[in-house]
Design brief:
Blueprint lengths: L1 H6 L3 H21 L7 H7 L9 H7 L7 H22 L1 H23 L12 H17 L3 H23 L7 H19 L7 H25 L2
Helix pairs in contact: 2-5, 2-6, 4-6, 4-10, 5-6, 5-7, 6-7, 6-9, 6-10, 7-8, 7-9
Length: 229
């Protein structure tokens, strides 16, 4: 209940959650499935993968596409928590832009590493962007003297990466470790830059970053949907 109340104070986080849910609802309507989706539905919705059309735009749209109900629930639960922690402290516009940029860069790394795979997987999910937000918040907290917060976030990073690498070592391809690492590193760079600018971002800059994030995401989905597979 406390998280729900705090989400009302984090409109960008709420908006990101809403977009992810909207994409999932559209996928349900497309496939007439609720719990999980096949590769055709994922591809049509905007998932990323080697050999698919307009891959550069799919690197962004894939950050809003989820494989199944558990996948989206877990990602959005974590997004809600890191969002309400970070949005007011680091800036609403920066949060929106970081989600878009780190989600994209995470999928770029995933695609590059999958290029030489004999069976390249389809990449989808908000987790790369979420790891980017966590990386940004962790670096910012540590360098601004909030060591307890930074340690807590760092523990979550190690847990996610540890679980992902463990599953991969066992041959379970449920986690995109490359997207996680790519998003995390990109987010850490954003946090490093942000800590050097202690003053809050002006409202006009927040508005520009939010508007640019919305526009870029909308264009990406239009391009993917009109290009075919």
């Amino acid at each position: 209940m406390n998280l729900i109340r705090r989400l009302r104070e984090a409109p960008v986080t709420l908006g990101l959650i809403a977009v992810n849910l909207l994409v999932y609802v559209i996928m349900v309507a497309m496939s007439r499935r609720l719990v999980s989706f096949d590769s055709a539905t994922l591809t049509a919705a905007g998932a990323s993968g080697v050999g698919l059309a307009v891959p550069q735009w799919r690197w962004l749209t894939a950050a809003f596409v989820h494989v199944n109900l558990l996948h989206i629930f877990m990602n959005l639960w974590v997004l809600a928590q890191i969002g309400v922690i970070s949005e007011r402290a680091l800036g609403r516009g920066l949060l929106a832009a970081t989600y878009v940029v780190t989600g994209t860069l995470g999928n770029v790394l995933s695609s590059v590493l999958a290029a030489n795979s004999p069976n390249p997987p389809i990449s989808a999910g908000a987790s790369g962007a979420i790891m980017g937000l966590i990386g940004m918040a962790t670096v910012f907290a540590w360098l601004s003297g909030q060591r307890a917060v930074a340690r807590s976030l760092a523990f979550n990073i190690l847990f996610v990466l540890g679980v992902g690498l463990s599953l991969s070592a066992r041959g379970v391809g449920l986690v995109d470790n490359a997207a996680h690492i790519g998003g995390l590193l990109a987010g850490a760079v954003v946090g490093l830059v942000r800590v050097r600018i202690q003053r809050p971002a002006p409202r006009w800059l927040d508005a520009v970053l939010i508007g640019a994030s919305i526009a870029l995401t909308a264009v990406a989905f239009v391009v993917v949907e009109t290009s075919g597979t």
